[in-house]
Design brief:
Largest interface: A-B, 48 and 53 residues
Strand order of the largest sheet of chain B: 1-2-8-7-6-5-4-3
Shape of chain A: elongated
Structural class of chain A: mainly alpha
Strand order of the largest sheet of chain A: 1-3-2
Oligomer: heterodimer
Distance between the termini of chain B: 43 Å
Radius of gyration of chain B: 17 Å
CATH topology of chain B: Alpha-D-Glucose-1,6-Bisphosphate, Chain A, domain 4
Order of helices and strands of chain B: EEHHEEEEEEHH
Number of helices of chain A: 6
CATH superfamily of chain B: START domain
Distance between the termini of chain A: 35 Å
Shape of chain B: globular
Number of helices of chain B: 4
Strand content of chain B: 35-45%
Structural class of chain B: alpha+beta
Largest sheet of chain A: 3 strands, antiparallel
């Protein structure tokens, strides 16, 4: 597994509808360029270029079996990209709601407000 | 309950404003004491672990949010100047996207009645970085790509 997934590349690769369709197809299993090109009106060389972009982003790997060149989905960069789905507003809205609760609890504990209660997270 | 105000500012910044029902000193403690910070920062679905949190000029911090699946998201940065309720200034970087560093400033203002307003400004290195943070959708119609990504994920988990 690469130490750091280059998310710029992952997001760039995902920006294209054909490449997303290819990834969706590959969730069902490995496929050849011919199989991947079948649903599209674009040429096989065009599909090959898309595969190169996906490979560059680490989203697929390619290997040979007998005479066939197969593409395989590599899920790890997608998982990491999905982690980036934390929305800024959502992150801070929920954080501040939790801060409201914490501040209320600290004030209930009295003016001393030691704040140390054994790391309860309920 | 107070409402969070979030707005883009110019091309490179995001500002937020939020009222809290507590005096300023207590809010400051919640920001600067690690064992209080872990009790509120981040969505509930994440646990938070602090590796280091050296509150002071030049001090470094690093913390990790961990979700139920065990995915880890680490964040780090450096404090600039000794943090005070008037100004907490620090750099912020998600280790998943190294080199995309923002400069964050939080100011606490007591507004009477034992209430405090938190105002934050985050300045990013590019408009794309700012918009990526804003809607997790790196501009140029990335919102749709994210929708598709979400559709893909169940299939990936089964696989």
């Amino acid at each position: 597994m690469p130490a750091v997934v280059e998310l710029d590349r992952v997001f760039g690769a995902l920006a294209d509808p054909t490449r997303r369709a290819i990834l969706t197809r590959l969730t069902q299993g490995e496929a050849t360029v011919t199989q991947l090109a079948a649903p599209f009106t674009v040429s096989q060389p065009a599909i090959s270029r898309h595969l190169k972009v996906l490979e560059g982003a680490g989203l697929i790997s390619r290997h040979r079996r007998a005479t066939a060149r197969l593409s395989r989905l590599e899920p790890e960069p997608l998982r990491q990209a999905a982690a980036w789905l934390i929305d800024y507003r959502e992150y801070w809205e929920e954080s501040f709601e939790r801060l409201d609760e914490l501040l209320a609890r600290l004030q209930d504990e009295g003016p001393a407000g030691s704040g140390h209660e054994g790391g309860s997270t309920s | 309950m107070s409402e969070l105000k979030v707005e883009k500012d110019g091309t490179h910044a995001i500002r937020t404003e939020r009222e809290l029902n507590a005096p300023r000193d207590l809010v400051f403690r919640a920001y600067t004491e690690p064992d209080l910070l872990t009790r509120w920062l981040g969505p509930r679905r994440y646990t938070m672990e602090i590796d280091r949190y050296e509150v002071g000029d030049g001090g470094r911090y690093r913390y990790v949010h961990r979700d139920e699946q065990g995915n880890e998201h680490a964040f780090r940065g450096v404090f600039h100047g000794d943090p005070t309720p008037d100004a907490m200034v620090q750099t912020f970087e998600w280790e998943g996207l190294p080199g995309h560093v923002s400069l964050d400033r939080a100011v606490l203002e007591e507004i009477g009645g034992g209430r405090t307003v938190v105002r934050t400004t985050s300045v990013f290195q590019s408009e794309a970085d700012r918009d990526g943070m804003w809607d997790s959708g790196m501009a140029d119609g990335m919102g749709e790509a994210y929708d598709r990504l979400e559709e893909l994920l169940p299939a990936l988990r089964e696989g």
